Each structure stands twice: as structure tokens, then as C-alpha cells.
Amino acid sequence: MGSLDKGVLTGFICRLCSEMHRVVLHIYGEEGIRLCISEKINRYLSINVSRSDPLPKTICKNCLERLENQHRLVMRIEQAANMLKGQRKARVTRGAYVSLCEDQQNPPASE
């Protein structure tokens, strides 16, 4: 049997794929809390987990890897969106941004 201190259990059903696995990670164990597994499941998947629900509280290695990949993808997308918003804001501040919605009939006077 795996170390309960690290939240590794053996012979349990994965909450996500519902398959029996020899080694799983307890969602609310020390390692599961450190990795924020329940928060990631609740954020990225169309299911909610809680300590009080009657379903399994373990996740297999494959599902954990997929969940972590999803997390990295979302973090990368959010980081890129923030960077693009920052660049757009900088262009607007410098006056380099021209809105497509500006009044076409009153172009700015040339100097």
C-alpha cells in the first residue's frame, strides 16, 4: 500500500474515469490538496467534487495528468489573453490604436 502521508492509495476507483486502479491519489489528501485537484476538477470539468459527496475521492495517474495538462493549457491561454490586453492598452495609451468604430465622415485634421 502507498504512503497515506502523501495521499497515495492502492486499489481504488478513479473519480473521473471510474476505473479501478492499483495506485491513485486521494483528492483531499496532503498531495491532492497541494496540487489543488478538487479546485481544478471543479473549474475545468463539468462535475463538482466535494468532501461530503458520496462518490470516490481518488484520481488515477492518467486522469491527473490530463487534468494537469488542461490546467497548463488554460493558464497559457489566460496569460496570452492578459498579454494581448496589455499590449492593446499600451497602444491605446500611446495613441497608436485606431478604432474601427470612429466616425468615418469626420477624419482627423492633418497637420
TrEMBL record:
- Which UniProt keywords are present, listed alphabetically? Metal-binding, Zinc, Zinc-finger
Q: Where does Zn(2+) bind?
A: C14, C17, C60, C63
Q: Which GO terms describe its cellular component?
A: nucleus
Q: Which residues form the ZAD domain?
A: 12-87
The family database entries (Pfam families) matched by this protein are listed as: zf-AD
InterPro entries given for it? Znf_AD
Question: Superkingdom, according to UniProt?
Answer: Eukaryota
- Gene Ontology molecular function terms on file: zinc ion binding
Q: Which PANTHER family match?
A: BCDNA.LD26519-RELATED
Record's protein name: ZAD domain-containing protein
The organism that produces this protein has a lineage beginning with:
Eukaryota, Metazoa, Ecdysozoa, Arthropoda, Hexapoda
